[in-house]
Amino acid sequence: METxxxxxxxxxxxxxxxxxxxxxxxxxRRKSALLPILHIAQAEFGGWVSPEVQDLVAEVIGIKPxxxxxxxxxxxxxNLKPVGKHVLEICRTGPCMLRGSDELTAHLxxxxxxxxxxxxxxxxxxxxxxxxxxxACGFAPIVQVREKYYEQLDTPEAVDAMLTxxxxxxxRPALPWEETGLPNAVANN
Amino acid sequence: xGRKLLTEHINVEGIDTFEVYRKHGGYRSVEKAIxxxxxxxxxxxxxxxxxxxxxxxxxxxGMKWSFLAKPEGxxxxxxxxxxESEPGTFKDRQLMxxxxxxxxxxxxxxxxxxxxxTSYIYIRGELLYVLRILEKAIAEAYANGFLGxxxxxxxYDLDLHVHPGGGAYICGEETAxxxxxxxxxxxxxxxxxxPAVQGLYARPxxxxxxxxxxxxVPIINExxxxxxxxxxxxxxxxxxxxxxxxxxxxxxxxxELGVPVEEFIYSDEYCGGIWKGRQLKAVVAGGSSVxxxxxxxxLKTAAGENxxxxxxxxxxxxxxxxxxxxxxxxxxxxxxxxxxxNTWNFSRFYHHESCGQCSPCREGxxxxxxxxxxxxxxxxxxxxxxxLVSVAKQIEGNTICPLGEAAAWPVAAAVRHFRHEFEWxxxxxxxxxxxxxxxxxxxxxx
Lengths: 189, 446
Prior knowledge:
heterodimer, A: four-stranded mixed β-sheet, B: four-stranded parallel β-sheet
């Protein structure tokens, strides 16, 4: 079956941010901006970086697509497959395990219906991902959702409060390079 | 009460803004350094202070700075290592998010000392919200003439940028960090050449931890000699300890180096004892990579003296009876903790985070994880225990970077001090495989 894909484009705000980032590095070292720009791309294009998006990143920096692929596949923060509206990154490392992260993961699987390392929940709202150390060990167990940390999730009430907050998020929070105060496009697009 | 050189104002309302930070004495070290001292004099003060790298290695910071090559007409760089991701360690995240100007002030003063005109803060990608806080603070510093061209009319120029990583523990290793900053996979480089000669973009570079750079501020304000008066012996100054695990009051504590470990765990000023009235079983004192110690060895040194929170006292007895201060990631485990399960968890971490460049680490970490997994789940054999030690030994010293050691030490130490627990997992395989099953001396599992 033939599929047609529309070539992705960065928003004007993102383009301006990318231009600013590129000034941080020497002119002949534009590739340095790769990780920061991948973060922008992931936030702009629904929480993951498709091959087309990675090609776009290569184009704006002026490097070969393979240079982007080899980097995006090395760093665990970049999702190479589609994800749900909210990606719940559950820390499973030692200190979080001591304070109940295994139970938290099982609990989240039960109530969201999503599976760790599996596809998103049936309603498309939640993707569960186990990650290594989030550097918040004193407030364990922890879940990170985009740029927010939810700490001390050791009671059902705390977990419910987090999920309710996420479910009620009609608009995604403004990204830093976007103008604030304007309603953003709905749900990660 | 110990002195707080870094965190004295951490809870002041609005301390993350330039105005409030300045009101509480902020940016004095920049003024003092740039207006009254030569760069070499700043380096000299840091040497006098005895400050040792707070990222874990404990190498004297002033000495590291004096190794920086200074060829004419070639730019050099200061890079702040804010890729904190060693399990148990979370001090830098707190410091940066609450006191962003402290790090920026330290970066300016340190960059001046090193003659760097462009500096970077490489922050782990998970902390994008901290990156926003730092960027806002940097913009304020530019607006107030502490960054940019001709700082305070001195003719010294400095640009400071924050750079996010992408979620890779290995990028905390300084050469992997530099590779990553250049937009590549975080594979550590062979040394030599060392970053001091060929670092970022093959230019002379110093890489320092967040806390080390922040400590430069009080050192310049009060003088290196004053700083060196705090602490014990070669462990000078204050240190941030991030305490977690089964403690009543986990959190970040700034201690004067030399506090007894027992006091740190049990006094109300610090961690307030073990939660739920339980007994302490073991401690990992300096982040997950350092050897674990059972209670009796973490409280007393081999010679029977009280163990102190210093580089020397914690490592007393070598790896047979001692451990390391490391990054100050203090993980306490109560009597209900299964050491095998915990060791497996750490091993899984190192397997996951190995960059895969050298075979001993790539294969060895996976092998150890596999063996620990089967012991933990009741499928292990007695020979597995010695196999673990053997694999750990074959990783150690055979890799490009220290991640190999970081993966091997916790396993070797767990077997060294808790061998009976591993053996119990083999002899009582069925019980051991039950969720929550823990070996306890003399106890019979229901």
